[in-house]
Amino acid sequence: MADFWIIGPIAWDLALYVDHIPPSGHFVQASESVERPGGTGANVAVALSQAGGAESTWWVTSETTPPAAT
């Protein structure tokens, strides 16, 4: 499989499970909640890795300091 560069967000997702989708303007109580890693960039990276793609990952976050110019 070819090597890929993936440019996209990583996130921490909160999934809420409900019995039904409420009509507009109404509310429903979640029966379960699950927190898990996600974001389109991370999801694509995991899928390609599981399909046999190369595993060399670089993550950039808002807290990452770019390297100093030389």
* Low-confidence regions: none
Trace the largest sheet across and list its strands.
Answer: 1-2
First CA to last CA: what distance? Answer: 36 Å
Gross geometry: elongated
Rounded average pLDDT: 81
Taking the sheet with the most strands, its summary is: 2 strands, antiparallel
Question: What is the percent of helical residues?
Answer: 10-25%
* Tally of DSSP β-strands: 2
Number of helices: 1
Percentage of residues in DSSP E strands: 15-25%
Strand and helix order: EEH
Give the radius of gyration.
18 Å
Question: Structural class of the secondary structure composition?
Answer: alpha+beta
Write the layout of secondary structure elements.
Layout: E1 11-17, E2 32-38, H1 40-50
Antiparallel strand pairs: 1-2
Describe the model.
The protein has a domain at 11-43. The chain is built from one helix and two strands. The protein has one helix at residues 40-50, and strands spanning 11-17, 32-38. A two-stranded antiparallel sheet has the order 1-2. The two termini are 36 Å apart. The longest helix has 11 residues, at 40-50. Helices cover 16% and strands 20% of the residues. By secondary structure, it is an alpha+beta fold.
Q: In brief, what are we looking at here?
A:
The chain is of the alpha+beta class and 70 residues long. Helix content is 16%, strand content 20%.
